[in-house]
Amino acid sequence: MQTRKLGRTGPQVAQLGLGLMGMSDLYGPADRGESLATIRAAMDAGVSLLDTGDFYGMGHNEMLLGEALAAGGRDGVQISVKFGALRDPAGNWAGIDTRPVALKNFAAYSLKRLGVEHIDIYRPARLDPNVPIEDTVGAIAELVQAGRVRHIGLSEVGSETLRRAHAVHPIADLQIEYSLISRGIENGILQTCRELGIGITAYGVLSRGLISGHWSKQREGEADFRGLASPRFQGENLDRNLALVEKLRAIAGELGVSVAQVAIAWVAAQGEDIVPLVGARTRVRLEEALASTRVKLSPSDLARLEQAVPPGAASGGRYDAHSTAVLDSENS
């Protein structure tokens, strides 16, 4: 497993990271034993960046990761934690809170659930419109000084917010959606990150499974986040997007790899400052994703993929209208 550095000031991590959200939330039931086995298999394979959030399953995801770390140790593992998203007892979203007093409380609970002395990368899940980013980053910087946090990250913010935050304390990386069919980052945000020396941890590299090669029309309307709230998985949007997947399947077949592998490899090929995060929930899907690190796309391969799925080709937004309205990365 090769490594990449997250920005000028961030840690050196494996070239592929593991996002744990689906093991606790939003994508339907997950098998606890298989989740733990998948996390451990990832660590054994050299995956060193493990991404979680304190609101994934309302603490369940952090406790799951804490159990995996207790069994396998955390040597060489970099833990990335998102905070600030509020939930009610029914699991509904209830806003965002990144006030200094709140985030220090969130961090204390995360450290306890994870069973660790420090968090490697700590980041607000979204921009809080009621709290200046300078206040949020300044409070995390105090946790850095106290040894509770090693690096500061951000998630789904635009260029202006990146500049303001970076002026307070160096930002290691921006976590943001990036895939063959989600390329908004290329309209200024990626350029700003490179100017400032901020790395990218790219989530949604398979667009929540849509371009994994494993999704089908028969799964439309499944009772999870995708079927109920994601426009890309609904109606005519789904038909058009699955047609794009078939174009990818043809290219992947010629290369002797799977659709998922070529999609992950495309993200990785966009720059050494980008680390794809995969949301594998099983060891089978993890093995498929790990094999993407051995896929080398030539300039002609990249050109063919660009022709098959050009920017703007996806039908439907990556989030619904309400969620998009509060994304600083979409509206700045």
Automatic annotation (TrEMBL):
A Pfam entry, by short name: Aldo_ket_red
Keyword Cell inner membrane: no
Domain NADP-dependent oxidoreductase: 16-308
GO function terms (MF aspect): oxidoreductase activity
Protein name: Aldo/keto reductase
Alphabetically ordered keywords of this record: Oxidoreductase
Residue segments, region Disordered: 312-332
Entry keyword annotation includes Transmembrane helix: no
GO cellular component, one term: cytoplasm
Species this chain originates from: Duganella vulcania
Domain of life: Bacteria
